[in-house]
């Protein structure tokens, strides 16, 4: 320690929602905290991912909902300029002043700069003016740096300056022609949003044989049908082999593995994420520099003998979803506070049932794709005696009142031995709010005989629960 060190009980590197919550829980436990952030306080989710993408998708969702109702007077074009303006409001015009104030009111110290581990319990923050602030933690350092978009190693792709989720969600001028690489959540959501907002020629290159490969197969099938009906050119089983962009502001050409060529104004890559550990200084404390940072059930880094380093959210590689990172952060902050105060180490720990087996996810497309827990294939691979129940969501009376031609499907994956739900999937318009009831059923392992007594209201789409249980045989 030197006289110039700034000392705190806990130092958090990364001021996204995960880092903020870890600091807030530590402060609630009586500790002092500093949060170091190079970019915008609030993180990727608030400015370039979850929030802006949903702001762009919500008008698309509403327009689709209106289109399924009788009466041509209800229909009209989407006002792209108004949608982009509302998106700008949702991300506070990329001004994090309000979020910085929130952090300072915890109270915690906000440090603007690039945080890097220097040695055990030490963090160096390189400030925007090129200076350095030396920070020391009494008890713990928490890494919450998240993840970055992954760019596939395709010849010419990096040189073509592709869009990632950051450029797509921050778009100011929607391109007329767009080619999208990837069929995961980012590729699906942004293809539909930008197509509806003006990318009239949208082409998706998906190397797999379906969209959303981590969900039940019918989810990708229904989404592909919807996309193609709207005019999106979905090419399954196709991969780019070369990308060319001769002029910086000119068109981009993608050559695919079947010999065809696609020309577009912009190219968007939605090919997954990689943990953000670049120049984090992991090697200075004995960890490998490329990550992820492996952690135990208290989010403590397993490779650090003295147990002072924690990692929460995407950077530990456990579960790359914002809400699951926030769950981990609550555990992390509580554990650090308990250990620092000499309390029995009996605070909540990460449980597989929450951090893996009961993870909910929503793809905010039309139709919405909502899933929690295991798919049928995953459950069988894990050795369960599996039985499933499927039902056409369009046959539920409440669904018929929602829209003309309402189309969707639901599925439960059941452990036949214990008669509990292992997983649930809903694919249909406007079903996002059905998901939490399924999450509770999976996480709490509610017996089917008990679920049968949870009576859904009539006439609502939630009657799908009754139909699924009856399809199961109850």
Describe this structure in words.
It is a single chain. With 474 residues, this protein is an alpha/beta fold. The protein has three domains: 6-42 and 96-148 and 274-353, FAD/NAD(P)-binding domain (3-Layer(bba) Sandwich); 158-271, FAD/NAD(P)-binding domain (3-Layer(bba) Sandwich); 367-472, FAD/NAD-linked reductase, C-terminal dimerisation domain (Enolase-like, domain 1). Helix content is 30%, strand content 24%. The protein contains 15 helices and 21 strands. Strands 1, 2, 3, 4, 5, 6 and 16 form a seven-stranded mixed β-sheet that branches. A hairpin with a 4-residue loop joins β17 and β18 (368-373).
Structural class: alpha/beta
What do we call the CATH topology of the largest domain?
FAD/NAD(P)-binding domain
Number of domains: 3
Strand tally is: 21
What's the shape?
globular
* Helix share, percent: 25-40%
Overall mean confidence score, pLDDT: 94
Give a brief rundown of this model.
The chain is α/β, with parallel strands linked by helices. It has helices at residues 17-28, 43-48, 50-67, 80-90, 97-104, 165-169, 185-196, 217-230, 322-340, 352-355, 376-381, 397-402, 435-443, 448-451, 464-472; strands at 6-13, 33-37, 109-112, 114-119, 122-126, 132-143, 147-149, 177-181, 201-206, 233-236, 240-244, 252-256, 261-264, 266-269, 273-275, 309-311, 360-363, 368-373, 386-392, 409-415, 420-428.
